[in-house]
């Protein structure tokens, strides 16, 4: 017995001393989905959590590691978990979006997510991917570089995780299902949270999250936007931030006093505690540059230097206004791939599929709805209808009648997308995918539309990182706009805001066989139908093919 214990300890030690022995570790996690009472804004409600935590546990791994997460569902809701931004090469079964890559883990059931992290390092997030459960079921994923590989920026003294969220006083699942039945917009949240805390609220005992720092040290802040519907500004009074990575891809470092971060995005930034000992306010506030209601309550936390006595924090001299479009555009324009020898930007230069996706909302008749109609959302006029069999299962087992592969490459009835809307705002229902061969190259120009209200749409692609090659206001001009595309060092990411009444162009290589969801990461728009999927066929041989499904894959 003692021998085995010593042998095991020696193996662990060897793993630290000799990195080669430690390559490709397997990391095991258990995620128990349980209800937990939580009190915020002076009121208590039960929430769905992982392991009783809000935000949930941080998942740590190194590049190259295999991650095994056993999810056990102890709640009355169907559950799935998505590992947002993890490439999932050939392991689509572990991606997580309900009815896209798997059927839900039903109450009392469990499922093992099994995937390997390759070619990525930085911060990502995990979250539930069914109805609106991700509001409370989410957490950070920290991917460290391989042992012995340094960061391409000065090594920070410490690292801190900062997860941003949104809080509703009412039960979220009830709220969204009532809103959907009535065909009305769901209520906006009641507060923004920083690491699960709202910040001071009059007459409630809530001080907010405190970020402890020591004078002179440098911190790597791993910032995750796990909010449901709100793009956010992040600011720390008196301190500059140096952005070094987004969506687990290194960027050229740049200094800023404001970070703009959309739901589903992650940003790593260095902060040096180089100011006088004291307390400094941290604030998150929403971005909304159109006439859509948003939770406008600023979330507050405190940066506190060691040795500070209790006195009021240094306030922020300004918080960006809700419609501060120039702040978002200047932040986005500053983001560039690091594009070094070690981390080159591999932007596809020759395009096999050039797609133009008009995204926005529409209005469909609805007999049971308050106004006899409901607001829906669409891509190229297709409002995605969720199947009852997971698309990936239908694809793998050749089950017909679940989806069709005729997703339109272009708007079928072109109109002035950012001008006067068409007279007919109706959309069509469909469960359609766009099919491409393995390793083909794809360009998508997302065109925001003006229907009802133009709006910023943070669009997320599963299974791939893409390069953000171009961006502009108004309608995309296929003749002239490509001339100014950045094909050298565009930022690489998995979620990107399509500007209000504007367009953005992305490129990626479809080197991952399977079915990959694409959707707006504002949950309200996803729910309304702003989603589709890419079907990437197998290439040649097993290394270019989707793996067979695991034996415990949940059934519908
Ligand atoms: C939450 O609190 C209520 C009322 O006190 C209690 O009945 C319920 O069991 C609690 N739920 C959990 C998950 O602790
Ligand atoms: C995870 O997947 C790998 C590769 O398919 C397989 O060898 C391994 O047994 C799986 N592990 C578990 C716990 O399912
Ligand atoms: C939505 O907000 C309104 C106004 O605050 C409130 O009356 C209603 O109960 C809320 N709906 C739900 C489902 O929480
Ligand atoms: C119903 O339609 C009217 C007119 O378009 C609009 O002002 C009102 O907000 C709508 N009500 C709901 C509940 O959507
Ligand atoms: C806070 O409590 C005080 C004293 O009970 C009361 O006068 C005040 O209106 C309360 N403020 C809010 C915002 O509820
Ligand atoms: C926040 O929104 C509410 C409701 O729409 C509005 O009454 C309030 O004036 C807004 N506050 C700020 C600071 O914009
Ligand atoms: C599905 O069809 C393809 C091509 O027709 C075939 O190669 C494959 O074996 C079929 N898969 C299953 C699980 O039946
Ligand atoms: C589209 O609408 C915009 C805004 O009204 C207008 O400036 C533009 O000229 C229109 N474009 C075309 C091609 O009609
Ligand atoms: C969208 O589809 C609906 C239903 O087929 C049709 O009536 C409408 O004209 C289409 N609109 C556009 C812009 O394609
Ligand atoms: C479209 O799908 C929704 C369900 O997502 C359904 O309620 C509605 O009746 C469908 N509309 C048409 C025109 O088929
Ligand atoms: C994918 O295509 C690129 C050229 O676009 C080629 O260099 C590469 O070898 C291909 N990879 C595979 C696995 O086929
Ligand atoms: C849970 O998922 C199963 C399988 O898809 C489905 O039959 C059931 O209706 C779902 N339950 C709820 C409450 O949505
Ligand atoms: Cu959207």
From TrEMBL:
Residues 1-22 form the signal peptide. CDD domains: CuRO_1_LCC_plant, CuRO_2_LCC_plant, CuRO_3_LCC_plant. Its main location: secreted. Its cofactor is Cu cation. Its EC number is 1.10.3.2. PROSITE patterns: MULTICOPPER_OXIDASE1, MULTICOPPER_OXIDASE2. One of its GO terms (molecular function) is hydroquinone:oxygen oxidoreductase activity. One of its GO terms (cellular component) is apoplast. One of its GO terms (biological process) is lignin catabolic process. Pfam families: Cu-oxidase, Cu-oxidase_2, Cu-oxidase_3. It catalyses: 4 hydroquinone + O2 = 4 benzosemiquinone + 2 H2O. It comes from the Eukaryota. Lignin degradation and detoxification of lignin-derived products. This is Laccase. It comes from Nyssa sinensis.
């Amino acid at each position: 017995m003692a021998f085995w214990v010593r042998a095991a300890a020696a193996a662990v030690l060897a793993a630290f001393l000799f990195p080669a022995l430690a390559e490709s570790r397997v990391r095991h996690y258990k995620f128990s989905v349980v209800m937990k009472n939580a009190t915020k804004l002076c009121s208590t409600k039960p929430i769905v959590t992982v392991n009783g935590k809000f935000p949930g546990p941080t998942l740590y791994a190194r590049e190259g590691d295999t991650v095994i997460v056993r999810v056990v569902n102890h709640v009355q809701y169907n559950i799935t978990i998505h590992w947002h931004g993890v490439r999932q090469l050939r392991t689509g079964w572990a991606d997580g979006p309900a009815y896209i890559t798997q059927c839900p883990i039903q109450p009392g059931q469990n499922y093992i997510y099994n995937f390997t992290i390759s070619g990525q390092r930085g911060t990502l997030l995990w979250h539930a991917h069914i109805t609106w459960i991700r509001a409370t079921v989410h957490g950070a994923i920290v991917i460290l570089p391989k042992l012995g590989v340094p960061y391409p920026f000065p090594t920070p003294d410490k690292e801190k995780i900062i997860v941003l969220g949104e809080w509703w006083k009412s039960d979220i699942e009830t709220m969204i299902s009532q809103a959907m039945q009535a065909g009305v917009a769901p209520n906006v949240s009641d507060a923004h949270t920083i690491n699960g805390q709202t910040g001071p609220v009059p007459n409630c005992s809530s001080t907010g999250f405190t970020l402890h720092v020591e004078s002179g040290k440098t911190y790597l802040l791993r910032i995750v936007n796990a909010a449901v519907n709100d793009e956010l500004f992040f600011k720390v009074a008196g301190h500059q931030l140096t952005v070094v990575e987004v969506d687990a891809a290194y960027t050229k470092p740049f200094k800023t006093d404001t970070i703009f971060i959309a739901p589903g995005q992650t940003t790593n930034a260095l902060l040096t505690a180089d100011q006088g000992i004291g307390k400094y306010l941290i604030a998150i506030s929403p971005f909304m540059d159109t006439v859509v209601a948003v939770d406008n309550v600023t979330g507050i936390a405190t940066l506190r230097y060691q040795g500070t006595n209790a006195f009021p924090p240094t306030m922020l001299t300004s918080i960006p206004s809700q419609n501060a479009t120039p702040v978002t555009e200047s932040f986005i324009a500053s983001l560039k791939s690091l594009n070094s020898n070690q981390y080159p930007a591999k932007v596809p230069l020759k395009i096999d599929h050039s797609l133009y996706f008009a995204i926005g909302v529409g209005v469909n008749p609805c007999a049971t709805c308050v106004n006899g109609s409901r607001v829906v959302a669409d891509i190229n006029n297709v409002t995605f209808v969720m199947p009852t069999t997971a698309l990936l299962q239908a694809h793998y087992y050749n089950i017909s009648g679940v989806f069709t592969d005729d997703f339109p490459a272009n708007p079928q009835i072109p109109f002035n997308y950012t001008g006067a809307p068409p007279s007919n705002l109706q959309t069509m229902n469909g469960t359609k995918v766009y099919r491409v061969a393995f390793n083909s190259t794809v360009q998508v120009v997302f065109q925001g539309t003006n229907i009802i209200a133009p709006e910023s749409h943070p669009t997320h692609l599963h299974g791939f990182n893409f390069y953000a090659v171009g961006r502009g206001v108004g309608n995309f001009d296929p003749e002239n706009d490509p001339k100014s595309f950045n094909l050298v060092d565009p930022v690489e990411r998995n979620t990107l805001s399509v500007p209000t009444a504007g367009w953005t162009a992305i490129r990626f290589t479809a080197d991952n066989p399977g079915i990959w969801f694409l959707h707006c990461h504002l949950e309200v728009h996803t729910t309304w139908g702003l989603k589709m999927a890419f079907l990437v066929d197998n290439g040649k041989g097993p290394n270019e093919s989707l793996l067979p499904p695991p034996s415990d894959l949940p059934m519908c």
